[in-house]
Design a protein that fits this description.
Layout (H helix, E strand, L loop, with lengths): L1 E7 L27 H9 L7 E7 L3 H9 L8 E7 L5 H15 L4 E6 L7 H15 L4 E6 L10 E7 L9 E7 L4 H10 L2 E11 H11 L1 H25 L10 E5 L2 H4 L7 H6 L5 E6 L9 H5 L10 E3 L2 E4 L5 E4 L4 E4 L4 E6 L2 E6 L6 H10 L10 E4 L2 E9 L2 E8 L7 E3 L3 E9 L2 E5 L2 E5 L4 E4 L5 E4 L6 E9 L8 E4 L7
Parallel strand pairs: 1-2, 1-4, 2-3, 3-9, 5-10, 11-13, 12-14, 13-15
Antiparallel strand pairs: 4-8, 5-8, 6-7, 6-8, 7-10, 15-16, 17-18, 18-19, 19-26, 20-27, 21-24, 21-26, 22-23, 22-25
């Protein structure tokens, strides 16, 4: 059985201000209606021979990931299991835990491991290559996908290819001679000219048993801690199901969630599967991919996904160019005009604007590092933030006040919570709100309001069948999103 495993945990700091900590790169939509995560799932669905698919992601992204999966038309017949990490520990622990999960489905399971944030336009060509990899992995080999270089790229690792693997097709898997770290420009040009090197894509295919055996041989601490984490996670899942009844581990729809045990997972070494296994194991093969591929690693790479005008300009959103060349503009809400500029990246979001030279696109991550060093919310949140119950949008904020637009989906509920530093005024614009304020529960209709004092336990519910829209005015000496003490929460966000 082939089981796709999607690794969906990268921060994508080079794609700020669209990619942020609470809305990372896999959820971005580039030149289409589907997110990168949805595109990855979509090209995997025909390969999920046992109608099972795994996604390893951070626990903070579980609800958004579920929504993305269940919105795909072909997802109804596939069981998706999310393995929820309490923190990022790189790819080796993630793959080890995915392998342990897959073995419980099928002891002969073959894993197709894919990052969630790559772009592969030709799904049919990808699926043909994946089937080749599955056959090669059936021998017990560890297969990695190599991308044919199109330029002397210094931003990728390289793999030197050896002779064809025994029994392989002429265009099939080859022995790996060595893995090479990101080279300088001169070495990259040599690699390209030799024809023996491919880019290291970070995509893999191997038997679950084979990768666990390789981890045991070459990274025994990763293997041991992953097993401890899995045992503790399964025990907690079993206890939860016993307490809450059958189906307690399942979310609504075809999604199941397994929360990985935080204490044991924290002790897993943070190491990539390349360093842990692929660079050391004996039977490692590379399959040259026969499809176009991009890891969308910078805004320059994003710009390459769009058709350029006669001056080399590209755009997503509304833009106007006058005497401008080789410039990419992305705008969400308004017209952006570029006049007399060359080789620029302009990315406009409601609360942040990026202007950068294309040649410096890799340095965008330094902006994120500076924002984090000052605890600036723009590193983590957009102005509109998705929550399991709906969304909120910050309309305006200043000294001692913040104004939000809150939308709650029908039948959904915010947590029972309290704030130490702020009071809240709620004005209902449309729909009906059910409000709990300390011991009192009451309804607030459209064009009515209510007041939540500092230190009051409160909850907001949409009891109706229409979207609830409210304006919230916060007042206080601290208005950060971390001033929330949760007592009860249907989405499991209480301590």
């Amino acid at each position: 059985m082939l089981i796709p495993i999607i690794l969906s945990g990268g921060a994508g700091t080079r794609l700020w201000p669209v990619s942020r900590e609470a809305f990372p790169k896999p959820f971005m939509r580039i030149g289409g209606e589907l997110s990168l995560l949805q595109r990855t799932i979509q090209r995997c669905l025909p390969l999920a021979s046992g109608a099972a698919l795994g996604i390893v992601t951070n626990q903070e992204y579980q609800f958004r990931t579920q929504e993305e999966f269940e919105a795909l038309p072909g997802a109804q017949g596939v069981q998706c299991t999310q393995l929820l990490e309490p923190a990022g520990r790189n790819t080796a622990p993630a793959i080890a835990l995915a392998a342990l999960w897959a073995l419980e489905i099928d002891p002969q399971a073959v894993l197709l491991v894919l990052p969630a944030d790559h772009l592969i336009p030709d799904e049919a060509a990808f699926q043909t290559c994946a089937r080749q990899a599955e056959r090669a992995a059936g021998t017990g080999a560890l297969i990695t996908f190599g991308i044919q270089p199109t330029a002397p790229e210094t931003g990728f690792g390289y793999i030197e290819m050896g002779p064809l693997a025994p029994g392989s097709d002429p265009d099939g898997a080859r022995a790996v001679v060595r893995f090479v770290e990101k080279p300088d420009a001169a070495r990259a040009a040599q690699f390209l000219a030799s024809g023996r090197f491919v880019w290291n894509s970070g995509m893999f295919c191997f038997q679950a048993q084979a990768i666990l055996a390789a981890l045991q041989a070459h990274a025994p601490e990763v293997a041991a801690q992953a097993r401890l984490t899995w045992q503790a996670s399964r025990a907690a899942l079993k206890d939860s199901a016993s307490a809450l009844g059958a189906g307690a581990s399942r979310a609504a729809g075809p999604t199941q969630r397994v929360a990985l045990d935080a204490a044991t997972f924290a002790t897993c070494p943070s190491v990539s599967i390349d360093y842990a296994v692929m660079e050391h194991a004996a039977d490692v093969q590379v399959l040259p991919a026969r499809f176009a591929w991009s890891d969308i690693g910078s805004w320059s790479a994003v710009a390459e996904q769009f058709v350029a005008d006669s001056e080399g300009n590209t755009t997503q959103g509304e833009a106007l160019f006058v005497n401008a060349r080789n410039t990419h503009v992305q705008s969400e809400d308004r017209l952006v005009a570029a006049v007399g500029v060359d080789n620029l990246l302009v990315v406009d979001t409601p609360d942040a604007l990026l202007v950068a030279s294309k040649d410096a696109s890799q340095q965008v991550k330094e902006i994120v590092a500076r924002l984090k060093s000052t605890n600036h919310e723009a590193a983590r949140l957009h102005r509109t933030v998705a929550r399991p119950w709906g969304t909120y949008t910050v309309l305006q904020e200043g000294p001692r006040f913040k104004i939000k637009r809150i939308e709650v989906r029908p039948g959904q509920s915010l947590s029972l919570q309290m704030h130490h530093h702020r009071s809240e005024h709620w004005i209902v614009v449309s729909g009906t709100a059910q409000v709990t304020c300390d011991e009192r529960t009451y309804l607030v209709a459209a064009n009515e309001s209510t007041y939540i004092p500092i230190g009051t336990r409160h909850r907001l519910v949409n009891p109706g069948v229409m979207q609830l829209v409210m304006i919230e005015v916060q007042c206080g000496d601290y208005l950060g999103e971390d001033d929330i003490v949760r007592f009860e929460d249907r989405y499991g966000r209480t301590p």
